[in-house]
Prior knowledge:
Number of strands: 0
Amino acid sequence: MPRPSLSEDDIDDLLYFARTNDTSELSTLLTSLSSQHACSQSDILLAARDPESGNTVAHYAAANGFDDLLKWLLACLNPAHATASPSTELQAHANGTSPSLPSNAPTKASTNNDASAKSQPPELFTVSNASGSTPLHYAATTGSLACAQMLVQAGVEIGVRNAMGRMAVYEAEAGGKEEIVAYLLKEGGDAVVEGQRAEEKEEEGDDDAMEEVAKDEQESLNEGKGKSVQEGVEGLELGGKEEG
Length: 244
């Protein structure tokens, strides 16, 4: 089924409510648009992308450290992950309280027993923007450990690379977000650790290449020292004359 074609205003509103963490307005608009287009709220959210950056509501939530919004989105998009209904989550968020668990919610024991099973994340949490970055890249870049944990626990792939070939752990290290670096390396396992080492070596190689370029430029400048500007001009002029 094709995704709904949302108006520019609807997209702007959805993304704005995500940037401001206004889950009440976001829920109201989602319900209305879902009914209007006869599709799921997941389809609406996936269709709501910034026309230039390609960012989704999940990108903005992760970038701003809104782990409570990510939690609500997870409950909305993937009921298997939910500990309370989306409406209950919203009301609790508005009241500043913790939502009560529904009667069919998994117990802590059953949740722990299922922890070894790899979760299938909602598509909204894995989609890349125009620069290839996922919400996890954004959480790592801005230093939101809670959002990074929420996304990883939802099952997102830690080793995904953006258009620059960088994993989220690289972005976290570049920004000095040591807690997130440690967390992602621990959760990502050997593949992520090795990938991070490869990225560091590649970065070192780029630095070495830049040093070589600078060295060559300096040598060229040194070779030209001692000559006056006039001598240089005269040399060019002589080179362009025909012998008579």
